[in-house]
Design brief:
The chain is an all-alpha fold. It has 2 helices and no strands. The chain is about 75% helix and about 0% strand. Helix 1 packs across helix 2 (about 45-75). It is elongated.
Length: about 80
């Protein structure tokens, strides 16, 4: 039986993708904020905010993938 990957290893592998998704979503949210009279979020600011916010997103993605791997192993 293969060994189970810990969530932290999966989170490290998925960090780049999670941080990228956070950056895209923050930038789009910044564009939508203009409809309410707020200023838009620049792409650089979205990238800067995505670095720390990517950590919990990567952790959640790691937990999700871990559950999927457990289901695949059982079935």
């Amino acid at each position: 039986m293969p060994t189970r990957w810990p969530v932290w290893k999966l989170a490290i592998l998925l960090y780049v993708f999670a941080a990228g998704a956070v950056a895209i979503n923050l930038f789009m949210l910044g564009l939508l904020s203009q409809a309410f009279g707020l200023t838009a979020l620049s792409p650089r600011a979205a990238l800067a905010w995505s670095v720390p916010l990517g950590v919990p997103a990567a952790w959640l993605a790691g937990r999700w993938v871990s559950r999927l791997l457990d289901e695949a192993r059982e079935g």
